[in-house]
């Protein structure tokens, strides 16, 4: 069964009150969100089918939007509760425990028992019969018809809202998939268009069956993270659809492609451009770190551009290796990432946290300004690891002779081997903003270093896409 993810919600919770100004306050994960009445009336017309809606309808509609977490057509549905099931074959009704996880609805005699049955709701007919006291919902699929009875009309309305979301959680109901534009170990990326408004999207199609069980953990983590993050310097996720065979992540299409490819192709790149890029990247990283998300795989391939023309606007992507620091625990212990951009503490198998991302940003900036990597070897991964751990950071005059002290200072601050002394995202962002503002230290003339080597077709070595082990260090 595909997982819907998210906090398990037993219906009956969530609505707090309507205040005097006509705003409905709702709780989600103990945090208040406020939406104005004018907003939900306008947005609800096509769903409710009338020009005006009742307060109760508005509350349930807003609950759905919160449940969907800002996604367009999908949600991390994970709701459960007791209700009555009407049996057509026998008179009367039976009290059963129902669980809606993603698009799958299961029925149990007891929450601790295995399900008596499970059905996929995609494409199902959902009929709401309000004439019944409390409410009755009829679910009709190709294999089964289910009749649910409710004593409480509000609970019935909440279940109806979630069931209606589940029945439409299929990518082809909302997006037209087109040509393939990329691929990964267990995934393909295809161009697509939203059926509703024609918006261009990129659709990452992950094959569950070809993915090893251990890697499914990373994939599920990526799904959980992209559902929650929302920042102008992070590639936006519009929808996540899951079934037994696939995970489909519908994302913002980034026509500019990879940052380093744009720089290498453009051939004209100055410090002001680099400072702009770093400010945007660090602003996105600051947002992630404040939410306890460690990216863990920062590298040029994961920095995309909204366009290939200057000024560039960049965004982080690919959260497959990301992890979330839990409350009271600010360290992780698994080795993941890409060799050239790996922080020393990661190689030493020490507990680590957000500073690993800042180290990687330092490597990216060094590479972006010079066209070279500070720690590199054409063939031997263990030599790269040794350099990261022990080699003195060097700024050769032929590469950095015309680079400002501001830029070099930021690189030094990001590449401190002791994570406790390393710049954090907020500090690095402040320094980058000062670097950008300081007209005397910003050169608008092109950097003379050969940046053509930054292009992915030349830059990727046999190590650059390989998850690595520290056994040889």
TrEMBL record:
Belongs to the protein kinase superfamily. Pfam families: Pkinase. CDD domains: STKc_CAMK (cd05117). Keywords: ATP-binding, Kinase, Nucleotide-binding, Serine/threonine-protein kinase, Transferase. This is Protein kinase domain-containing protein. Residues 175-436 form the Protein kinase domain. Residues 1-22 are annotated as: Disordered.
């Amino acid at each position: 069964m595909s997982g819907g993810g998210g906090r398990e919600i037993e219906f009956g919770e969530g609505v707090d009150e309507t205040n005097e100004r006509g705003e409905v306050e709702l709780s989600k994960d103990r945090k208040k969100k406020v939406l104005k009445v004018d907003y939900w009336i306008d947005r609800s017309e096509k769903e409710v089918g009338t020009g005006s809606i009742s307060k109760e309808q508005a509350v349930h509609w807003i609950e759905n939007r919160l449940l969907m977490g800002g996604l367009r057509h999908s949600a991390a549905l994970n709701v459960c509760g007791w209700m009555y099931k009407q049996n057509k074959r026998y008179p009367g009704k039976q009290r059963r425990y129902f669980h809606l996880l993603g698009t799958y609805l299961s029925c149990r005699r007891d929450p601790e028992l295995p399900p008596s049955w499970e059905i996929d709701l995609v494409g199902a007919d959902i009929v709401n019969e309000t004439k019944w006291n409390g409410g009755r919902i009829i679910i009709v699929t190709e294999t089964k018809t289910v009749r649910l009875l409710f004593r409480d009309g509000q609970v019935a309305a909440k279940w109806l809202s979630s069931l209606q979301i589940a029945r439409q959680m299929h990518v082809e109901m909302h997006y037209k998939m087109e040509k393939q534009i990329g691929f990964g170990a267990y995934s393909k990326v295809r161009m697509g268009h939203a059926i509703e408004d024609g918006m261009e999207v990129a659709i990452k199609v992950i094959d569950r069956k070809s993915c090893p069980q251990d890697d499914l953990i990373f994939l599920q983590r990526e799904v959980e993270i992209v559902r929650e993050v929302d920042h102008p310097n992070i590639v936006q996720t519009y929808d996540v659809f899951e079934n037994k065979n696939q995970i489909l992540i519908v994302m913002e299409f980034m026509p500019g492609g990879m940052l380093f490819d744009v720089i290498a192709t453009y051939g004209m790149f100055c410090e002001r451009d680099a400072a702009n890029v770093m400010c945007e990247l660090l602003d996105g990283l600051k947002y992630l770190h404040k939410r306890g998300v460690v990216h863990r795989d920062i590298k040029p391939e994961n920095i995309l551009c909204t366009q290939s023309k200057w000024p560039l606007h960049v965004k982080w992507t690919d959260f497959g290796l990301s992890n979330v620091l839990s409350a009271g625990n600010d360290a992780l212990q698994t080795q993941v990432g890409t060799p050239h951009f790996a922080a020393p503490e990661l190689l030493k198998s020490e507990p680590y946290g957000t500073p690993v991302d800042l180290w990687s940003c330092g490597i990216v900036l060094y590479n972006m300004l010079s066209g070279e990597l500070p720690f590199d070897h054409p063939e031997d991964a263990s030599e790269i690891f040794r350099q990261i751990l022990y080699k003195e950071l060097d700024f050769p005059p032929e590469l950095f002779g015309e680079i400002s002290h501001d830029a070099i200072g930021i690189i030094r601050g990001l590449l401190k081997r002791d994570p406790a002394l390393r710049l954090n995202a907020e500090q690095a962002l402040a320094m980058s903003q000062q670097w950008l503002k300081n007209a005397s230290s910003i050169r608008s003339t092109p950097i003379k270093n050969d940046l053509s080597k930054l292009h992915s077709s030349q830059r990727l070595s046999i190590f650059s896409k390989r998850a690595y082990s520290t056994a040889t260090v």
